[in-house]
Write a structure and sequence with these properties.
The protein is an all-alpha fold and 235 residues long. Helix content is 65%, strand content 2%.
Length: 235
Amino acid sequence: MFHGDDPALTAVVARACATARGRRSSRVGGEDLLLALARGGGRVAEILARHGATAAAVRSAADAAAPRGAGAAADRVLLATLGVDLDRLLPDPAAAPWDRPVGRTPLLPLGASAARRRSARRNPRLGLDAQAAYEASLRLALARRERQHRPEHLALVLVTLDPGVDWLLASLGTDRRALAEDLAAAFPAPARVSLLRAERRLAGRTRHRRLLRRYQRLTGRTAIDAPALAKLINS
């Protein structure tokens, strides 16, 4: 039986809002989620730190990406290869077309009460990249037949899918693939019984395709490492 969000994950999302507010950012991006994970202690934070993504380093890189965020920084690099200057195209730093959903509104943290919604209005808004990462991590937990949605699912999704986090890690000199492999080894899919493992393998391709398509449609960005995501689901 699936038990929803682990309290530790709820704390990560709240900490991401607090860190974005502390950085005087108007939005919570994937970089804020990564920073919240780096500040959270435990195995995820230890693995991030081992690869150079300490809380201080992530905070510095996130500040460097302000005011538009790490996702826009990644977009800027990509568009520059096509001869497009993002800053000339969107001279207003407050303009954020990437935060306008193309598809159905993402799943926000489950069970949002009226009090939590009021709190969310007082905090910086959740950027579409952060919302999509949260939803993808929930779908990853469900696809792996986990019992709870936990911080490691969010970490795995950010490192394998999010272009902004890829940009941030590159700016730190972190080997993203090595980090992803370390996280995957530390947090394998539950073994369970042989029947459940067989079911996960048989349905894994479909679940991977749906998760990837949903993430890319919501963000308008191409996932950075779709094969790594497939391994996380099918392992």
